[in-house]
Amino acid sequence: MSDRRKQEALNAPLDPRSPLVLDTRELGRRPGALKEFSRTVPAPADLGIEVIGVPQGSPMELDLRLESVMEGVLVTGTARARLKGECVRCLEPLEQECEADFQEMFSYPDADDRSRFADTGDDAEDEETFRLEGDLLDLEPVLRDAVVLSLPLQPVCQEDCPGLCPRCGARLADDPGHDHNEAVDIRWAALEGLAGSMRDGEKDEDNEPRTAGDDPQEK
Question: For the chain, which residues score pLDDT lower than 50?
Answer without folding.
Answer: 1, 114-126, 183, 219
